[in-house]
Amino acid sequence: MVVLREHKLVEKFQVGPAVRTITTLPLTFLDLPLAGPIYVRRQFFYHFPHSTLHFCETILPCLKTSLSQTLQHFFPLAGNLLCPPPPHKPFIHCTGDDFVTLTIIESEADFKNLSSNRPKSLKDLDHLVPKLTCSNTHHDTFIFPLVALQATVFPNHGLCIAITYCHVMDDSCCSHFMKSWSSICRSGGVDFTLVEKSTPCFDREVLKDPKGLEAIFLRDYFEERSTWKVGKTSEVSNGNSEDYVKATIVFGREDVEGLRRWVLNQWKRSKEFNTPQYISKFVVTCAFVWASLVKTRCRNDEEEDVKEEFFRFAADCRDRLEHPVPKTYFGNCLTLCYAMLKREDLKGESGFVNAVKVIERAVADMKSELFKDAENWRESFTKMFVLGSTLIVTGSPKFTVYETDFGFGRPTKVEMAHSFKGMSLAETGDNEGGLEIGLVCTSTEYEYLISLIEQGLQISKS
Q1: Which is the most buried residue in 60, 131, 225, 284, by most CB within 10 A?
Q2: Within a 10 A sphere around the Cβ of 163, how many other Cβ atoms?
Q3: How many CB atoms lie within 10 A of CB 286?
Q4: How far apart are CA 36 and CA 40, in angstroms?
């Protein structure tokens, strides 16, 4: 029996910056908690009714040239993160031989399904993202390539351009890079207006450490480093045989407004003194999904209802610090926040309202004290994973990922590949003010979750 390969390697390229930069870039105190084998993966799906040959002859040359031109401005991305043994700090090393790997794949998979909001196999999505693998020198220095790119052609149907990157930069930086690359590519490699007007800022002096956190984060980093393994890849599925699927749930503007009105009315009925007048789209939607997800996953675990559930998210600090950081700052400029509830308080009738209250409180705490309890971040997050269940938010509608146009139109779908502990956020592709929320769960969980969400939306409109 002949087994046809669904994914075929067409070619693999090593693309370097158009102009080489030889330097080192230190990590800041906000990079340290995210340094190492922590990866982010994003996929951009485009309508592309052409053959692989057409892509290679007409699109690929400009895609490579514009990538090289973009890397000239984002030169650290072609380098490597070097993590020497203690007491040395990690840093980004840029040499004259740096490059980013761009892999071209031809796929016979179902483009329409993979680029839809419907549940699709996590393993199928994993084939569309490039892999990053760390290595180690004989001096016990870990080496992490920062970025890998992949273009997957679905002949006569579509195209997927995917990025995997090491978390030496945050999502804001990634969005800046992808929009710069796509803008240059869209112009045929002649218009550099976008990147020249928003040149990446590599100045580490703009980021101050007001609480002296670097020493604490460096200690935590060295402890975490001792657990790393050589060869660990950026794959999501890791061979898990369980039928995990990734699906997107779309909340339109009216859905969000209905949930907001309903939860505010419920909050006011409780006659609490501190009832807010307004709740953000982020808080109300995330609280609704968090409560629904816990009710779904724990519907048969009544014996563990006292277990703690955690909701973890990050907030951009660029315009919140005493000394504002440029919007184009390259690196991580995030504070890490979380909310916690007992499982029984999320599963009950007031689960949605309870979730809104604790997430709203976490946001308010962040605004009043940006790095509250930051000295205990590692201890707190370790506890979350050991003693409770954690849902981690990635992405944001603020990044406007659907504006990433390489010259063949806006993406028909933007995905993030992550584990079942993740929840990805993006603006809706129709640009109508809604939210896309991506979740990973089993097929059975998905059916139950959707019924819960539809029921909750219906109640909010009554």
Answers
A1: 284
A2: 21
A3: 23
A4: 12
The tokens 């440029």 sit on which residue? 326
Beta strands in 208-365 (DSSP E): 244-251, 308-316, 334-342
Residue with tokens 């390969």: 5
Q: Is 58 helix (H, G, I), strand (E, B) or coil?
A: helix
- Which residue of the set 110, 126, 305, 405 is catalytic? 405
Q: Is 176 a catalytic residue?
A: no
Tens of pLDDT along 192-251?
999 999 999 999 999 999 899 999 999 999 999 999 988 766 676 544 545 899 999 999
CB distance 281 to 256 below 8 Å: yes
One-letter amino acid at 380 equals S
Superfamily grouping for domain 244-461: Chloramphenicol acetyltransferase-like domain (3.30.559.10)
Catalytic: 93? Answer: no
Domain with CATH 3.30.559.10 in the chain: 7-225, 244-461
User: Tokens 């590599």 belong to which residue?
Assistant: 202
Q: What is the per-residue pLDDT across 269-309, written as a single tens digit (0 to 9) for each?
A: 876 767 788 999 999 999 999 999 999 999 887 777 788 99
User: How far apart (Å, rounded) are the C-alpha atoms in residues 433 and 260?
Assistant: 14
Cβ atoms within 10 Å of 188's Cβ, excluding its own: 11
- Please give the Cα distance from 438 to 401 (Å, whole number): 14
Rounded distance between C-alpha atoms, residue 278 and residue 408, angstroms: 40
How is domain 7-225 classified at the architecture level of CATH? 2-Layer Sandwich (3.30)
148 membership: H or E segment, kind and range: strand 147-154
| HSE, side-chain direction, 13 A CA sphere, residue 376 | 7
Give the global pTM: 0.95
Identify the active-site residue in 157, 167, 176, 418: 167
Helix (H, G, I), strand (E, B) or coil at 193: helix
Alpha-carbon gap, residue 262 to 287, rounded angstroms: 13
**For residues 196 and 40, what is the distance between their CA atoms, to the nearest angstrom?**
26
Q: Are 413 and 429 in contact (CB under 8 A)?
A: yes
Torsion of CA 408, 412, 418, 419, to 10 degrees: -150
Tokens linked to 274: 């501190």
Distance, in Å, from the CA atom of 363 to the CA atom of 51, rounded to the nearest integer, reads 48
Q: Looking up tokens 């180690």, which residue turns up? A: 136
Structure tokens at 237: 């599925």
- Looking at the DSSP bridge assignments, the partners of residue 324 are none
